[in-house]
Amino acid sequence: MSEQVSQLIDSLRAKAERGELLYIGENVVRVDSLEKVLGNPVYTADLIPRGTVYAKLFHSAVPHGVIRGMDLGGAKAHPGVLGVLTSRDIPGLNESSAVLPDRQLFADPVVRSTADILGAVIAESSPAAADAAAKIRVEYDPLPAIFDPLEALKPDAVKIHPKGNIARQMKIRKGDVEEGFSKSDIILEKTYRTQFQDATPLEPEMGLAIPEDGGVRVIGSMQSPHHTQAAVAKVLKLPPQKVRVIQAVTGGAFGPKSDETPYDVCSTAALAAVKYRRPVFCGLDREDSMVMHTKRHPFVITHKTGVSKDGTLIADESKIVGDTGAYASLGVFVIVRATFHTVGAYEVPNVKADSFLVYTDNTYTGSLRGFGGPQAIFAIESQMEELARRLGMDPLEFRMRNMLVPGKRNATSALMDESCGLPQCLEKVVASSGYREKAARYRNQTGSVRRGLGLALLMHGNSLGPEGNDYGAVHIEVLSDGSVSVGSGLTEYGTGAISGMMQVASSILGVPLSRFKLERPDTSKHRESGPTVASRVVVIGGNASKQAAEKLREKLLPLAAEMLKARVDDVALADGIAFDRRKPSQTLTWDSLVTEAYRRGISLKEDGFFMAPPAPWDQEVGQGTPYVQYTWGALVTEVEVDMETGYYKVVGVHVAYDVGKAVNPGGVLGQIYGGTVQGLGYAMMEELLHKDGAVVNPNLGDYYIPTSMDIPAEFKAFIVEVPGPLGPFGAKIIAEPPIVLPGPAVRNAVLNATGVSVDDLPVTSEKVLMGMKLMQAPRQS
Amino acid sequence: MTKRVITLNVNGTEHPVQVDAPDRLIDVLRDQLGTKSVKEGCSTGDCGICAVLVDGRLVNSCLMLAAQCDGRRVLTLEGLLNDPSMKRLQGTFMANNAAQCGFCTPAMLMASWDLARHSSDPSPEEIKVAISGILCRCTGYYQIIDSVREGCRGGER
Amino acid sequence: MIASGTDLLPRMRKRQIAPSVLLDISSFTEDLRYIRQTDGVVRLGALTTVTDLLESPVFHANLSIIREAAELFGAPQVRNVATVGGNVCSAASSEDLIPVFMALDASVKLISAKGERALPLKDFIVGKRETALGPSEILSEVSFAAPGGHSWTAYEKLGRRNMLIISIVNEALSLTLEDDLRTIGSARFALNRVSGRIPALAVRTNEFLGGRKLSEETIGQAQKVLASELSLTSDFRGSGSYRTEIAQAFLKRLLQRCSRMLGGAS
After folding, report:
1. Last residue of a domain, one of C113, C145, C177
2. Which of A120, B62, C111, C180 has the greatest number of C-beta atoms within 10 Å?
3. Domain containing C48 — which CATH number?
4. Residues B14, B46 within the same domain
């Protein structure tokens, strides 16, 4: 036997030893990388056929009012215009809402925000539609508008919805906080505020509808094709089977593309397609997208916290108010996650929380990466820093004393078990950042440039948890050429999770991912798998994918055994080669195996399905196990502040996440880098502003997201792997968590550098400078 | 509206195109000439996702009126698919996970290719400056910077 | 009139202005795109791009401010097309080069079918987005005397992030010291906003500084004069009081930096 062959056999043998972990933990190139670097025309706007007409949505000019009349004459007469759609043109239900039925597709007659869509101009070209839309005149009878959620909570406030301004309420009652306060040496009460953040996927929302077959085919940029199908069918009054929805390659999402906007653009396009019997493209430009799609909820969170003088947390009472804007959207679940995370990664024996999801006449808010977590953790981690200062304790020691470790219980009294990797995460970042040595060095700075360190810890409940049944289905078919086609209702929009899910199947089957093809999610082909949100693809989809692959393997191994004249238990498959472990020189290629299977009429199609175990909790007291597992994390930032201007830079980020098992480490790091930078944007510079209900800065020149010049010079990321009970190979979610910690860590670092507590995000240089001026101002006696 | 005929050299081929006054270069490239790698992200020149090379300079094609490009040479990703330097960059982008949603990828590749022409070993700082006008929301830029560093080196000049 | 359109086109897109006709001068590069230095005067053709400024060997030593400002300007794609003329004619507080040219005591040349005229830049900009450009005139050139021996010009900019921003504060100082390297011969300090949103020289501050000895006390007093001279409005990028604080901090910083570069005290 030649040297080469012998080496190949040894390598195969070694790989076979890894069993199902063959490709797990490998930086395999994503299945969808090639088309992206080639610049292939795969996004929705690239697929517009000749003869397509364009829909331009027009929206309310007032934040609260009743439409008295609409003058569409100018628009209809504009050259190139086919017509203008309004609520009168809806054959089915005038509804476009994700959870509560509180929102219409085309507002009529009440408008509750400037994001409310009133209708759409349909024209031969996009500029014609836009120019025509500018000619529409709407008259409103204005109603008093509310923009502050605390105002909206007052009993005499104007009702934005008939049932009042509270869309959802929640509470936690653990132990007895009053007793806890009576035993506390120090009680601190502080209020924290967060801002509207825009998701800013670089591709805005778009939908393309083509009339066909008594129904319509819709191609769009979205996270949830089946939900979009249901929404469009309802509006068009068609049976769902007549509405075929296909997710095109999607250029980023981060949340809003799982809320109402895809329903809006796809329903509008579909309505027009059916009415005019033409393909219709409804694509939002950046301004429309930033006005109309859901943002992150601004929160006002007050914590009253009691500690003993040795630094033990005893009681925490929080009031949590989330501004959901004009419509509830996914806010009904955002408030739940925020509430469950109200004391973050710490054990507090007595917890009382009262949270309110409140309507206002601001543009509405909904899903955005982190989903209530960033707001809740900003508040508690800032409070922890303030408490440490009050106690005269080192912020790290104070956190270590109280953090969740195996054996402790969180805010819902769920018991943390050995899958809690928080201590390992903290250890990594403390070592990497040189925290202890630097914290001591930075204690007594003078000079006009100063540095500071900020620390924050993360607990992030995995997947849908309390939001409903958490399931997914994946279909795998081995084609006659040996390629492996994978299809699912779960979607890819940048995270790489779908490729990760396929990498699981590739590992089980022993066939390289390069042989795999991803089918475009298609409601006519793939089972409904819930929304692709909550970072659930690797955990839920990964398990379904694993199951389908295992079923295929069970079919193929006996055939391979027969062809190799070996025992089934001795057959191994790695790198697309099947061989007998006892006689490894005898090999069989995957292609020949597949060819023989086809020859024998063996079906190579399998479905996998996975549903997460129920997550029971008591709604009355907010106690139980709303999450089946948790992702853990720790972050240290170092900032450098120019004391004369308040301008600061984040010079270092050290971060560690316990992800259970990193299926594709390069992919996990990509999520960590990307999420952290998005979190730094939230911490430092992002703020979507409203004035009298109108968005002030709906464009990328006035709304700042980080550029390559804004990223920290030093970024050290560590993957910790403490397996969890839910995901394949113990995997935990990672797509959302990295956005959570930068907010409080930056805020705390600035505090440590300057002595200024900025209690409302973003931490701008203005707030830092003006905070310093206030500190220097002579006190009035 | 009066139409004008202009001549654009796109990816080495002369194209006579009819344009209206408000037509932008991106409209002509995508809608008339089919170079769909050029994406539109913001329409106000703030994101760089539409970046192409015009007469050898990186510009935002959403901010150039087509009529102003009469007689100019435009280069998009489609015109560089056989270029060895671009192929090297595409390879390093794939190997380093630099394309997540992929929407900024063509613009990032154009800026990187332009940098590679001028520098065979750019520092991370130089790379950051070269891509500073292109926004990415997915990657946080780090894996892109690694890809460009690797892709610019190891090439024959 | 449109050169690169980097200011004009986004404003049209946002429907802030709706011109019915655009006069495109971008192709007159042979006549209007140049950087010349003759007899101690630097002349920039109106179609000179910001990248041209960055790449020109002319802007070193005490003219390096031009390169500094160009480096911090926009982003590469914008630098490649944005023009000197476009920047100046926009007359907006968002235009980075205007304070620089004002500090350098630049003049503009305006040409028309009837001939040409020159105007100091500070007189060319008459209000927010308002210039003295006549209806049939084109700005053809921006020129300034290259600073002499004891002169240094420096620049500071601050925004919400590091790149691609509309500045909150954007300032330039041209400082000339006497032979003792301590007495201020003249100071020309210009900001993107002095009153309202108009780029201008801080006239009273400059008057105060002329002839005084550079010291911590002088700087402190100049800052107070500046604070009283500035009348800055608030907008979503920053409040008026914050902008005033920054302006004062930058004045001190620029005075110290220029002095240091000239071999004087810092």
Report:
1. C145
2. A120
3. 3.30.465.10
4. yes
Is C145 in contact with C188 (CB distance < 8 Å)? Answer: no
What pLDDT score was predicted for residue A245? Answer: 98
In this prediction, what percent of chain B has a pLDDT beyond 90? 92
Domain of residue B96 covers 82-152
Residue C17 Cα, gap to closest chain A Cα (Å): 14
With contacts defined as CB-CB under 8 Å, which chain B residues touch C78? Answer: 45, 60, 133
Chain A positions in Cβ-Cβ contact with residue C256 (cut-off 8 Å): none
Q: Which of C105, C121, C145 is the last residue of a domain?
A: C145
Specify burial of residue A283 (Cβ count, 10 A radius: 0-12, 13-18, 19+): buried
Same domain, C74 and C106: yes
Q: Over the stretch A385-400, which tens digit does the pLDDT of each residue have?
A: 999 999 999 999 999 9
Please give the tally of structural domains in chain B.
2
Q: Using an 8 Å CB-CB cutoff, list chain C residues near B65.
A: 2, 5, 9, 22, 24
**Residue B147 in domain:** yes
Minimum CA–CA partner of A499 in chain B: B100
DSSP output for B54-85: ETTEEEEGGGSBGGGGTT-EEE-GGGGTT-HH
Q: Tell me the per-residue pLDDT of A208-243, one tens digit each, with 9 for 90 and over.
A: 999 998 999 999 999 999 999 999 999 999 999 999
Q: Which of C158, C166, C239 lies closest to A701 in CB terms?
A: C166
At C164-186, the pLDDT tens digits run 778 888 999 999 999 999 999 99
Report CA dihedral (A438, A444, A448, A449) to the nearest 10 degrees.
Answer: 10
Looking at per-residue pLDDT, the higher value among C264 and B1 belongs to C264
Q: Is the pLDDT of residue A8 over 90?
A: no
Nearest chain A CA: its distance from B103 CA (Å): 5
Which of C22, C80, C164 is nearest residue B59 as measured by Cβ atoms? C80
Residue C235 structural domain: 151-261
Give the relative orientation of helices A742-754 and A665-684 as an angle to the nearest 10 degrees. Answer: 50
Would you call B128 and A37 a contact, using CB atoms and an 8 Å cutoff? Answer: no
Which other chains touch chain A, taking contact as 3+ CB pairs less than 8 Å apart?
Answer: B, C
Chain B environment of A37 (Cβ under 8 Å): 90, 93-94, 99, 102, 105, 109
Q: B68 and B49 share a domain?
A: yes
CB contact under 8 A, A666 and B97: yes
Same-domain pairing of C13 and C141: yes
Spatial contact of A665 and A27, defined as CB atoms under 8 Å apart = yes
Distance separating alpha carbons of residues A551 and A636, to the nearest angstrom? 44
pTM score, whole prediction? 0.97
Residue A1: is its pLDDT beyond 70? no
> What fold is seen in the domain A299-465+619-776?
Aldehyde Oxidoreductase; domain 4 (3.30.365)
- Establish if B69 belongs to a structural domain: yes
Residues of chain C contacting residue A287, judged by C-beta atoms under 8 Å apart = 14
CATH number of the domain to which B136 belongs? 1.10.150.120
Which two structure tokens, joined as six digits, stand for C115? 């001939």
- Report the chain B residue with the minimal C-alpha distance to residue A288: B42
Amino acid at A421: G
pLDDT of residue A143 exceeding 50: yes
Q: What fold is seen in the domain A3-30+471-611? A: Aldehyde Oxidoreductase; domain 4 (3.30.365)
What is the length of chain B? Answer: 157
For B82, nearest residue in chain A (alpha carbons): A38
Question: How wide is the angle at C-alpha A745 spanned by C-alphas A743 and A748, nearest 5°?
Answer: 110
